[in-house]
Design brief:
The protein is of the alpha+beta class. The protein has 22 helices and 22 strands. The strands form three sheets. Strands 11, 12, 13, 16, 17, 18, 19, 20, 21 and 22 form a ten-stranded mixed β-sheet that branches.
């Protein structure tokens, strides 16, 4: 019972240190479990969603998918389902674009209803509508809606509202983030088609590998193209997002855990060493070594256990909910739930066990000493003279420097731990601020260096040519054509962007250094990132076609440009037509604010709208930056505080000796501050390249659409330095006040 009272008394006396231990354990586990719970939530929720809806393993495209083709392909598939996909306009205000899926069976990539009835492929009177579009247009189950396409109109009753696994991510022609008031999708029975239906795609499920399936498909039938699940736009985009979040989860929480553990190691060693005299008394009055060790194990066990449990409980609850709102701006699923993995429990348990192990090692060393030696203060570490101390330069150095040099040589482990702790925290700050800088640079590159227009007028599908040229002349604008294309080269394929533009000052083309370049008439230019991905260089050839078109063309790469946001091909209208394709404008760019309302212009997007879309698209990344920054600052404070206390504890005898010799308190504070600044400086310098490496890992995981040049700005370095050194000085001020309260008698006890 007396040991328990002693523990409570020690907790009260050293409450600051024990609170710091608790907070470090909490922050480390909180960050690890929270960030990974967000990633596992994305992975587990999407996997469950894809499984429930039986997402296709692949899509076979052809002009007509007839019964004969289905029979042949069914020989090496587990299930097939045909669809005809039609681009239409909903007969509501502004006639938004709608993608209609006329479904034969509805057994693959099934519509997921959240309101109304489940999809029924036999019901030709109903339509199942995209929930995001329905919410934006205030449409409900039971309402009537009609669609116009190919000079025909179908009118149906809304039987269900929900989601499709093929549209977790959906692009918007007018902005970087989807505008669901202007776009959406719907599922209908094949029987609802007003004429004889010709299916243009076959959804397949198979047990073999993708390569084996493609080989069998090539041998069995003719088809236009095939897209495997991993390359489907929605699946691949969401997968890229998860990869980036996993990369963040792999790097930053591990740093949190390592820095926390290393600091715990030094902290527990300091507490046990500081109480060696009390341990000697306990040994002298008859307490067994086992009892004493168990007693001091509780010093680390309870704070670390409490911090780990709190982090384990709160991390997965709080951190994912900080990211999901911004994720829902770009992606659509029926539910967003944090995930859980047993690694959370294992890491928390490891934190507790390792803290016990570290405390045990500290206690075990002292328990081996006899009571008389244990009651004496710890003998100072000894060190022989080094080369610098033997040189003539040594006597010319200031006392401050010489004293700190010798102290660092004598207490190498403490110096190492301080440097490593600072280095880890600085690396987190550099990486977080670097990601922030990189996102700002990409935005500036795209909307300052490349885009010079004021408004982007999206052209309606059934635009009147006379109205179009009226809008073009009135706005003093320029036509552009933007389409998704599928390219094939070097046994690889991808869906990327095509930009066809006249020679206009409203768009600039740039190289990797953001310098303006010209794309000559007749040349086909490929983006830098895409050329690296497919290992292409000038003079190589690629095959490509516009998505939705059956016409494949072959083009020679004449130039390479750098584009930060959209990867693909750029060419002029004449160059496109030389390829045998028609130039069909999709937008008008103008340097004016265009407010005239005409039927041929579906929507008007300003450059400010696009910048806002960029901010929305990068909200999740920026939220991660904020979380990492806050945790890094708190962790840096705790690391520096605990290591500062450790330094003071180990130097008590030396400081007391200097006071006896007449050194003033302010001079002693200067000595401590000098050591703190030196160690912080070393840790800061070493943390810069480590942080840059972390930042590069994060940005490389940002997906195939973003291209950036890794940069480390002086603003990043200076801001990280300001935070780190401010914390270092503030912490030094806190513990240097202990000089006035130093127990001179206790500190100068004989250790012989």
């Amino acid at each position: 019972m007396s040991l328990f009272r002693k523990m409570l008394r020690d907790f009260k006396i050293n409450k600051t240190q024990f609170i710091a231990i608790f907070l470090m354990a909490f922050i480390g586990i909180f960050a690890y479990c929270g960030i990974y719970a967000e990633y596992y939530g994305l992975e587990q929720t999407s996997a469950d969603y894809y499984a429930q809806t039986n997402l296709a393993d692949g899509w076979v495209y052809n002009d007509t998918v007839d019964d004969s083709s289905v029979d042949k392909i069914s020989e090496f598939t587990t299930k097939t389902d045909r669809q005809a996909v039609v681009q239409s306009q909903a007969n509501v205000v502004n006639k938004p674009d709608m993608t209609l899926h006329f479904v034969e069976n509805g057994t693959i990539s099934k519509f997921y209803s959240v309101e109304g009835d489940d999809f029924n492929a036999s019901d030709d009177s109903g339509v199942w509508l995209d929930k995001r579009f329905a919410d934006a247009r205030d449409l409900h189950v039971g309402d009537k809606i009609s669609f116009e396409f190919d000079n025909q109109t179908v009118k149906k009753e809304i039987k269900g509202i929900g989601y499709s696994p093929e549209y977790v991510y959906e692009t918007s022609p007018a902005s970087l983030t989807p505008d669901f008031s202007q776009m959406g999708f719907a599922y209908l029975s094949a029987n609802a088609y007003p004429e004889d239906l010709e299916y243009d795609r076959l959804l397949v499920k198979y047990d073999s590998s993708d390569d084996d399936f493609i080989e069998k498909l090539d041998d069995s039938s003719d088809y236009l193209s095939f897209t495997k699940k991993d390359d489907q736009l929605s699946v691949s985009k969401f997968s890229d997002e998860m990869v980036q979040h996993k990369m963040i989860g792999d790097v930053f929480p591990v740093v949190f855990i390592l820095v926390t553990f290393l600091t715990l190691l030094t902290t527990m060693n300091r507490i046990v060493t500081h109480q060696r005299s009390q341990i000697g008394v306990l040994k002298a009055v008859g307490f067994k070594d086992t009892i004493i060790i168990l007693h001091y194990l509780s010093y680390s066990f309870f704070p670390v256990l409490a911090g780990s449990i709190l982090g384990l409980v709160t991390g997965p609850v709080i951190i994912p909910q900080m990211f999901y709102p911004s994720m829902q701006t770009n992606y659509s699923m029926p539910s967003w739930n944090p995930g859980f993995d047993m690694s959370f429990v294992y890491i928390a348990a490891m934190m507790v066990i390792l803290s016990l192990f570290v405390t045990y090692l500290s206690c075990r060393r002292i328990s081996k000493e006899n009571p008389a030696n244990t009651m004496r203060p710890k003998a100072p570490n000894m060190s022989s003279k080094g080369l610098l101390e033997k040189s003539n330069l040594w006597n010319r150095l200031s006392f401050n420097f010489r004293w700190n040099w010798r102290d660092a040589r004598v207490n190498k482990f403490r110096a190492f731990m301080t440097i490593v702790g600072v280095m880890g925290c600085v690396a987190l700050l550099i990486a977080a601020f670097g990601m922030n800088d990189s996102m700002k640079e990409l935005k500036s590159w795209e909307y300052d260096d490349i885009s010079h227009y004021e408004s982007k007028l999206q052209i309606s599908n059934n635009a009147n040519p006379m109205e179009l040229y009226y809008a073009l002349n009135e706005s003093n604008g320029s036509f552009i054509m933007q389409q998704s294309i599928e390219i094939k080269t070097n046994d690889s394929e991808d869906t990327v962007a095509l930009l066809v533009s006249n020679n206009t000052d409203l768009i600039s083309y740039t190289d990797s250094d953001r310098n303006s370049i010209d794309i000559d008439e007749g040349d086909v230019s490929i983006s830098k990132k895409l050329s690296k991905k497919f290992n292409l260089s000038i003079g190589d050839s690629i095959r490509w076609h516009i998505v939705g078109s059956d016409d494949w063309v072959s083009s020679k790469i004449d130039q390479i440009h750098a584009e930060p946001i959209s990867q693909g091909l750029i060419m002029s209208p004449d160059t496109l037509e030389d390829q045998g394709l028609n130039f069909t404008p999709t937008s008008i760019l103008t340097d004016q604010k265009y407010g005239e309302n005409i039927d041929s212009i579906k929507s008007v997007t300003t450059l400010d709208d696009l910048k806002e879309s960029w901010d929305q698209m990068t909200n999740a990344v920026m939220m991660m930056v904020y979380v990492i920054t806050i945790v890094a600052v708190v962790l840096a404070f705790l690391v520096l505080y605990n290591l500062g206390i450790l330094s003071f504890t180990e130097m008590e005898r030396e400081i007391a000796t200097l006071k006896v010799l007449g050194f003033k308190t302010n001079f002693l504070r200067k000595i401590l501050l000098t050591q703190n600044i030196i160690f912080t400086s070393i840790g800061f310098i070493l943390g810069i390249p480590l942080g840059f490496y972390f930042m590069t890992l994060m940005m490389n995981a940002a997906g195939d659409s973003l291209y950036y040049i890794p940069t480390l700005t002086w603003g990043n370095i200076l801001l990280s330095a300001l935070i780190t050194f401010s914390l270092s000085i503030a912490v030094n001020t806190l513990f240097s006040d202990k000089i006035n309260d130093l127990d001179m008698v206790e500190a100068l006890k004989d250790v012989d």
